[in-house]
Design brief:
The complex is a heterotrimer of chains A (106), B (164) and C (477). Chain B is mainly α and 164 residues long. Chain B has a domain at 122-164. Chain B has 7 helices and no strands. Chain B has helices at 2-20, 24-44, 48-72, 78-92, 95-109, 126-132, 135-163. Chain B is flat, with a radius of gyration of 21 Å. Chain B starts with a helix and ends with a helix. Chain C is an all-alpha fold. The chains are: A mainly alpha (106), B mainly alpha (164), C mainly alpha (477).
Chain lengths: 106, 164, 477
């Protein structure tokens, strides 16, 4: 169990890095506010997998599950606030283009 | 072990599809799909409670939030959709290439850490840990849920008035 | 007993919202002011026995593991002072009672979050309270619901989420070495295991996340937009205490208790600090918006704090903490003055303002005092803290960084003199001949903050022995 779980670390790290790249690319290359939020969500899912895998390897699933549960609650509230802000921007400008929010210069 | 790798490959493909799909509504549904696959991964890694939480909150609440905000914001006209499809493909076409290249590079690096794994702090299941050892996190969760209530009250109230 | 500092605001919010909403709306302001003033007194005189009698109920029912040492007490004092100023400003500036009630509730939640950040002993709980303070600030920035505020709030949300992701990556990687997440466990585990590449990645990710949250260059993209677009009391809160607690205090706590101040960490901190000082000061020179210039000045001063802290010696850390306290005071004072000017004249553009001292004497005088204190002119408080930082850098052999710190001081003086000349001195423009001094809820906090700045500066020898040197005895010498 011990040796087998440690060899699981490297493949999972590859996939988690791929998820981070997908999330960051989505945030950078989109012109749409909601797609930026989806990018943030994919990043958070990557971190969730990383936490669970670390818990599985070190045989500490109880602690990492507690951390993941707290993380999911926080993520839900942050997404709710972000969605509220996006709705507010849409009310003002009637479009979700990210190029509209470049008004503050400097 | 092979099944784990296969499920992770499906997860990465699903998330690439979520990011690259043209319609926003499909992106929201893709996010729910990614949450479901993530819950399957968590079940296989001995974390059932976290998987249930992930299913109920992420694949439920957050997907409902996303789909509702996508529906509330105005759809684009046909001409705008055609323009967006063209420009989006040129911007996003590098993504699968980069992901596959990074995956192959890291696969051949063969990093095998010889870690001495630590002893866990307390044995037991999640409910015991959460209630007895992580009370500060529980209070934090309650406070942030209260903050979320105020977010809805402050940010969402006038939107309804405008829509009326 | 320290758990009362986090639980009391939380229970106040519950109390204010559950019964008798009509009466509670009038009571909200008084309750918030009382809580923040109590916190100021508590931070200065924490004789445990008296307070334990009052908070008996809390410590009996809830066995939480909050603890405070000397660094936390400095931050608690800053949080108390800036929050009371914000509450007074909010009472005056927001006229409708319903909105003011929501505002004060959100302020109490941010207070609970900030106190929690300062008092925990566990790296994941630090993250949880960081997020509480962050989510509260997002809502507060977007409180007025105008377009610029939403823009600033969205940029802050996006960058803060990326920073939180990096902090969580670091926590997950550290869990590979340690059995739990509390500071002492991780510290022990890092001491007895080799420093492999995974630990380097964990430390680097954590430092990057914290730099984004503190708004240091080159990770400062959200800061000028969020500070200048937020409503006036929220700008005071953000600039005075949120960025410093969430960013700088978390960095200090983790660097001292978890990672240890090793040489690579020190070099990274000093480099980023010096970079922030110079480039933020240069960027501030070219601004025409009052609050935007003040936000770049904030980045520059936080660079001083990081530079002093990265030096690593006892004197450097003492200077950094003293400068943190001073910055909370004089930056809040400057933002209060900006709020006064904006509410009386209706504009923040410095090219349109001029000669306001003749009509607004209190604002002009306090603004001059705050500007001189920021630039480091004796005998005001800012001079002493900058002097300690420069001496600490010189004594520990970092001559180049000491010269950069002095150069930053000169640049600070330059842009603040141009600010004063453009806004307060010079000829009075025609449209402004009928404006009056700001009302009491602006001038009273301004006068109090100015008195603290001048008082701390003049009474410095006494403060040095009783407050600063004991604070830095974290290392035992």
């Amino acid at each position: 169990m011990h040796a087998e779980s440690l060899t699981l670390l490297w493949p999972f790290l590859i996939f988690v890095t791929m998820l981070f790249i997908i999330g960051i690319y989505c945030m950078l290359a989109t012109y749409n506010l909601i797609r930026a939020l989806i990018g943030i969500e994919i990043l958070i899912k990557g971190v969730t997998i990383l936490l669970i895998v670390v818990g599985y390897i070190t045989n500490n699933v109880a602690l990492t599950q507690a951390l993941v549960i707290t993380l999911i609650v926080i993520e839900a509230v942050v997404v709710a606030v972000a969605v509220g802000v996006v709705l507010g921007i849409h009310t003002h400008k009637n479009s979700l283009d990210i190029r509209n929010i470049r008004n503050l210069k400097g | 072990m092979q099944l784990n790798i296969f499920i992770m490959i499906v997860l990465v493909i699903a998330s690439i599809w979520t990011v690259m799909t043209r319609s926003l509504l499909r992106a929201g549904i893709g996010l729910a799909l990614v949450s479901v696959i993530l819950a399957i991964v968590m079940f296989r890694l001995n974390s059932p409670l976290a998987a249930v939480f992930e299913l109920s909150v992420c694949a439920g609440l957050i997907s409902v939030l996303f789909v509702s905000v996508i529906s509330l914001t105005q759809p684009y006209s046909q001409q705008e959709i055609a323009d967006r499809m063209k420009s989006m493909f040129t911007r996003f076409k590098y993504l699968p290439i980069i992901v596959v290249i990074v995956g192959l590079v890291m696969f051949f690096m063969k990093f095998r850490p010889d870690l001495t794994l630590p002893v866990p702090q307390a044995e037991g299941d999640v409910r015991n840990i959460l209630w007895n050892f992580r009370q500060i996190d529980l209070i934090g969760q309650v406070i942030i849920l209260l903050c979320g209530v105020f977010a809805v009250v402050v940010l969402f109230k006038e939107i309804r008035k405008n829509a009326r | 007993m320290y758990s009362a500092l986090v639980l009391a605001p939380f229970f106040c919010v519950l109390l204010l919202n559950m019964f008798f909403r009509g009466v509670m709306k009038k009571l909200a302001f008084g309750l918030a002011l009382l809580l923040s003033l109590t916190q100021i007194v508590f931070a200065i005189f924490p004789q445990t026995y008296n307070w334990a009698k009052f908070t008996y109920i809390f410590s009996n029912f809830f066995k939480f593991d909050f603890v405070a040492d000397n660094i936390s007490r400095v931050l608690l004092l800053c949080i108390g002072i800036v929050l009371s100023v914000t509450v007074i400003l909010a009472r005056g500036m927001i006229k409708e009672e319903e909105r003011r009630f929501n505002f004060i509730n959100l302020l109490l939640i941010v207070l609970a979050g900030l106190n929690g950040v300062v008092l925990v002993k566990d790296i994941f709980s630090l993250y949880v309270f960081l997020e509480i303070a962050g989510v509260g600030s997002f809502i507060l920035i977007a409180f007025d619901k105008d377009m610029l505020a939403f823009e600033g709030a969205f940029k802050y949300i996006a960058l803060s989420a990326v920073a939180s992701i990096m902090i969580l990556i670091s926590i997950a990687l550290l869990l590979l070495f340690s059995g739990g997440t509390s500071f002492s466990q991780i510290n022990v585990a890092l001491k007895y295991s080799a420093y492999g590449p995974l630990v380097m990645v964990a430390m680097g990710a954590f430092l990057c996340g914290i730099f984004i949250k503190s708004g240091l260059m080159p990770f400062h993209g959200w800061l000028p937009d969020a500070y200048s677009a937020a409503p006036a009391p929220v700008s005071v809160l953000l600039a005075g205490v949120v960025t410093k607690t969430v960013g700088v205090y978390a960095l200090i706590r983790i660097a001292i208790s978890v990672f240890g101040l090793y040489q690579p960490v020190q070099n990274a901190l000093m480099l980023i600090g010096a970079f922030s000082i110079i480039f933020a000061a240069l960027a501030a020179l070219g601004q025409s918006d009052f609050k935007r210039m003040l936000s770049f000045s904030s980045i520059s001063q936080v660079g001083y704090i990081i530079l002093g802290f990265g030096c690593g010696t006892t004197l450097g850390i003492a200077g950094a903490l003293f400068h943190l306290f001073n910055h909370a005071i004089f930056k809040s004072l400057l933002f209060v003055n900006a709020a006064t000017v904006e509410s009386q004249t209706g504009t923040r553009d410095m090219e349109k303002l001029g000669g306001l001292t003749a009509r607004m004497p209190v604002t002009g005088l306090t603004s001059v005092l705050a500007s001189l204190s920021t630039a480091g002119i004796p005998p005001l408080a800012g001079f002493w803290s900058k002097l300690i930082i420069i001496i600490a850098l010189w004594l520990s052999g970092n001559y180049i960084y000491a010269v950069i710190a002095v150069l930053g001081s000169v640049l600070t003086l330059a842009y603040f003199l141009s600010l004063q000349r453009n806004v307060f001195f010079g000829k009075l423009r025609e449209g402004f001949s009928s404006i009056k001094e700001g009302p009491l809820y602006f001038t009273i906090p301004a006068v109090l903050l100015a008195v603290i700045t001048v008082g701390v500066g003049i009474a410095f020898p006494y403060i040095l022995n009783t407050f600063i040197l004991p604070v830095s005895n974290i290392f035992g010498g």
